[in-house]
Amino acid sequence: MHTLEVAKRKQNKLKSNRFxxxxxxxxxxxxxxxxxxxxGCLTGQSFTIKSGKMNGNRFFCSNRVxxxxxxxRKTKGEVGKLMLSCRxxxxxxxxxxxxxxxxxxxxxxxxxxxxxxxxxxxxxxGGYVYTTGDILFDPVLQIENVELEMHSxxxxxxxxxxVLGKSARVDFKQGxxxxxxxxxxxxxxxxxxxxxxxxxxxxxxxxxxxxPPLKGKEFAEYRAKTDRETIIGxxxxxxxxxxxxxxxxxxxxxxxxxTFKPQFGVVHNRGSWTTELTTAVWFFTENDxxxxxxxxxxxxxxxxxxxxxxxxxxxxxxxxxxxxxxxGESTLNGAAKNDxxxxxxxxxxxxxxxxxxxxxxxxxxxxxxxxxxGGNTDNVAAALSVLW
Length: 388
Description:
By secondary structure, this protein is mainly beta. Helices cover about 10% and strands about 55% of the residues. Strand 16 and strand 17 (about 315-325) form a beta hairpin.
């Protein structure tokens, strides 16, 4: 059993401030394994109690990372008893950080994902994304003015092939991120920094209607003579827990769990215009090693996105899209939290061909939370892709 002991009081010093109150200092020492019994405050932290009678005053656990406050109250026969532990408040913070940050970073807005492609070709791409924005927390945590700045480098690979007479593709994506969070905890500056790999993802997609499996010259002739077309597709995305993850940190680039996202999409081409509609459900496995051994679960997340794309000529196109996601309520150690997610996402993209086999894409995406907690971020991206 881990222990919590209060250091012996050194010499009590009476300090007269302008309110004529007394200041006493207590220090929480580290337990056997750095954990605490009775849900006490985080280890190795100091608490300063400033009050003449110490009647229900509120204090906080100080640390260089974002941590919530503690509340000390006077009870019969005991002064300074911890009534609402930092650990319980920290668990609430962990849920908000773990779920809202993930929701903000993970929700997608991607046009042309159901595009008709020639068979047996490869696409490889690399890109850079700059992200900046604000993260909103429950006011009770007294965490304010939290700003996120993130640099991401992304790699993707696509291979097309034929399955049961249908055109299909597999996608692989891997990212590397460098992120910094800065804000105020109880009015004092605090920050956190992470750098490393993100979770890897694989996607298998098949066009169930339209977009016949064609190669080379046959594909070019079909696209040239087809003025109107409807494509219906289905896909499954699997996100692997391969990203940078620390079980003693609230903020991580990886999620330490699997995510499965079945998708269903409809595309209609009419001349130079293309409309797309994609719906998806995100299913999450539990994270049984979430922040100091806690168990984190999340309900399914439901998303819907639509795009309108205008193609000037092959490779040169511009598009805009909107998306909305709802759900994803969290459960911590079996206790459900009232923290439903809601995000509105909007963006624009421009595709520019450099040659027949090389192109670039410029993108802006904005995330706006529709709840009291979550993230409001702006993302600017540039990507290069090569076909062979």
